[in-house]
Amino acid sequence: MAEFSSILVEWQSSAVSWLNSRVVFSRFMNGRVPSSKRYRLTDYEHAANCATHGLWIIPSLVGGSVLYFLSVDQWQAAAAWLYGAGLSGLFISSTLFHTVAWKIRHLRGAAFPHATCVTHVAIYFFIAASYTPWLMLRELGPWSSHMRWIIWIMAVIGSTYVYYFHERYKLVELLGYVAMGAGPALVILSMADTAGLCELAVGEIFYVVGVAFFKSDGVVPFAHAIWHLFVAMGAATHYYAIWRHLYTPGH
What we know:
- The protein is an all-alpha fold.
- It has a single domain, classed as Rhopdopsin 7-helix transmembrane proteins (Up-down Bundle), CATH 1.20.1070.
- The protein has 9 helices and no strands.
- Helix 2 runs antiparallel to helix 4 (about 75-105), helix 3 (about 55-70) runs antiparallel to helix 4 (about 75-105) and helix 5 packs antiparallel against helix 6.
- The longest helix has 30 residues, at about 75-105.
- It starts with a helix and ends with a helix.
- Residues about 20-25 have low confidence and may be disordered.
- This is Monocyte to macrophage differentiation associated 2.
- Pfam families: HlyIII.
- Belongs to the ADIPOR family.
- Keywords: Membrane, Transmembrane, Transmembrane helix.
């Protein structure tokens, strides 16, 4: 009997601790909602979402400019321009979207769907832009070279799909992202020059691990902001690989 009472007291203590933690986290996180509904962010989460990508706007603009001024021919310049535009476009559109979702609530009925659409389009073009320097500046085989323009056609198709069927068939959209990421990756892995592949793999790991937080709203406080940080770390790792192996090789 005494042992049962001890277990009961311990269970009650654990329950109280859990409830207290929920009270503390309630300022920073709302409860989880069904997949058919949109999670309602707290003001703290809104601010974190804006900051975690907004802080990367200027570095992405500077980074793209650095690559452009390091270019020694028109191919490097074009690759730098496309990559820089995709990189900065992702952070700018994400920050604007989260700002609209937080501060311009009276416009959300009309503006929110369009803002969401813009961010998803930016993701397609960011994926295409991230692979472009590798596809343009590394030697490819006769068949692999077609991926240089196929990746951008895929981005246009994905963007068109988002415009007409946004969030109607989420699995199809997810498969589109996977196809855009996997196709060029296979081409890059087949390149004779393997310099930079390690950094590319590390960047991909950041993206993959971050997906766990992308789906954890209402479970982990600031889950979406943490996802943003993983995206930023993945993008930074890939930027370093491009700068080191495509624009300053041998230095």
